[in-house]
Design a protein that fits this description.
Elements (H helix, E strand, L loop, with lengths): L8 E6 L4 H15 L4 E12 L2 E5 L4 E5 H25 L7 E8 L2 H11 L4 E5 L5 H6 L3 H8 L4 E4 L16 H9 L8 H7 L4 E2 L17 E2 L1
Parallel strand pairs: 1-2, 1-6, 2-5, 6-7
Antiparallel strand pairs: 2-3, 3-4, 8-9
Helix pairs in contact: 3-5
């Protein structure tokens, strides 16, 4: 066995004792198990100053010493790891080789990214509570900070929606389609929808054949 085959595949996963954190943890366990020499480093970032920290255990804020908080994190991960191992063994699937827990203080995004840097991680997994599109899912969240700061690829996961309403996307307006067809694309909207779009979007159309002319206007869109 050569030395390269023993190089670990390192997955760092941030958890916060929530359902979202559990989803991230499950993904991290699975991804590390599917790689040779996989190992998972689980990090929780607590709040606190001095010898005591405030640990958010899924809605309840508990004040503990660093040692107590570290032990609580270890037990939490061990419980979920035991369940994961049992399910993998029942399917005769491999399980990653090593799990380590890390408790840190300060900014969650910075600490997750720093641990990934310290360990030369191959992947970071974080959860998000976002439900409405990628922009709202990421921007302003811990996940966004990790994506921005981490020195390696980041997987952002969230729990499956349980009966969450899915916005219905309507088919195109037949009159708008006809207007585009009749005008060879110069008119985008029918009379009814033109009023709706006039303030939000301003289009200036120029034919492809004359677009390269130095006096031809550009195609602009104003939002």
């Amino acid at each position: 066995m050569n030395a390269r085959s023993k190089v670990p595949y390192v997955v760092v996963v941030g958890i916060d004792f929530s359902e979202t954190g559990n989803t991230a943890l499950e993904h991290a366990f699975t991804l590390a198990s599917d790689k040779p020499n996989g190992e998972v480093h689980v990090i929780n970032v607590a709040r606190g100053y001095g010898p005591m920290v405030h640990l958010d255990t899924g809605g309840d804020i508990t004040t503990l010493s660093m040692e107590e908080a570290s032990h609580k994190l270890k037990l939490y991960v061990e419980e979920r790891l035991e369940d994961f191992v049992a399910r993998r063994e029942a399917l005769d699937r491999p399980v990653f080789e090593r799990a380590v827990t890390h408790l840190r203080l300060d900014s969650p995004a910075e600490e997750v990214a720093q641990l990934a840097s310290d360990l030369e991680a191959d992947l970071v997994v974080v959860g998000t509570h976002g439900r409405r599109g990628l922009r709202r899912l990421l921007l302003g969240s811990v996940a966004e900070g990790v994506v921005r700061l981490a020195p390696c690829p980041v997987l952002v996961v969230r729990p499956k929606d349980q009966g969450a309403p899915v916005p219905e996307i309507e088919p195109p307006c037949p009159a708008c389609v006809q207007a585009r067809k009749d005008s060879d694309g110069k008119e985008l909207w029918c009379a009814r929808h033109k009023e709706h779009h006039v303030r939000a979007h301003t289009y200036h159309y120029v034919d492809r054949n004359v677009a390269s002319h130095e006096n031809a206007p550009l195609i602009n869109r104003q939002d």
